[in-house]
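Hi R.,

Here's the input for the zinc ion complex you asked about:
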Amino acid sequence: MPFSLFCKDFKYKKYVVLYAFAKAHTFPTQLLFLIFQNIRVTLMKIYPIEAGNFKLDGGAMFGVVPKSLWTRTNPADAHNMIDIAARCMLIEDRDRLILIDTGMGEKQTEKFYSYYHLWGNDTIDTSLAKHGFHKDDITDVFMTHLHFDHCGGSVQWNKDRTGYEPAFKNATFWSNEDHWKWATQPNRREKASFLKENILPMEESGQLKFIKRKGTSFQESSELGFGLFFADGHTDKQMIPHITYQDKTIVFMADLLPTAGHLPLPFVMGYDTRPFLTLDEKEVFLNTAADQGYYLWLEHDAHNPIITVQHTEKGVRLKDTFTLEEII
Ligand SMILES: [Zn+2]
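And here is the predicted structure with zinc ion in place:
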């Protein structure tokens, strides 16, 4: 929003008056900073962007866990497939529009999509339009990791379908150097998940940047304004955003916790490259989430968009499920 409009908008007027008052009375810089922070948090908006639902094999999604247990939370269809969402997050933060993850995209073959049983009518375009936005408005595309169901929508066919181009022509694409290397020189296990056509065009466009890692598994800030947890169990250096929104911490769970059904520690996806590490990372994270009252944004859970968790005798378990409207 332009500053002139911001000043005229009634709901923001109090902040303009407060700032003018503070400035006129030569308040310390620290206080002015706090006022600005308050304005920023108040103005920030979050929108769900549904990039298109699909289905995955329930057995692969729950690894060694027997079907009789995981079907209680994630019922399977006749082909053993379970419902999966690609619920991305759009953050409107002052003059930035940040999209976290982009789903599978639309450039693969019919045969490829037939393996994933697409369902529902949402696409990134229709979902952005619902909130009054267009792909060209996006300033930053942040990818938690480069598996095809998280970054496929970042790249599209060019006009004459002779090559690929970034689907967000005005955006900076964000990954991290270690994960980029991991994805572009893939191990045999993950090779089928890191598709060259999803990844290389971002670098070739000159629009790719790397998040600077500070060496710790959790860092409170990043170039995008939010905190990041670097998790290595699912894939190397997956980034889990921690967003401060009003008085809440919303954590974009990506593949650290794909659905609410994955809350019990041993319920780890068969896709994870280091399942023992996932167990440790989940344990530390979920205990913190229960202590701190985090709101967990479940990208892949088709039926539980946001959850909170609590300590129980069995370990950390589901506390409440929220619709997005109840939180954002
Ligand atoms: Zn993944």
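One thing worth noting: Residues 1-5 have pLDDT under 50 and may be disordered.

Cheers,
M.
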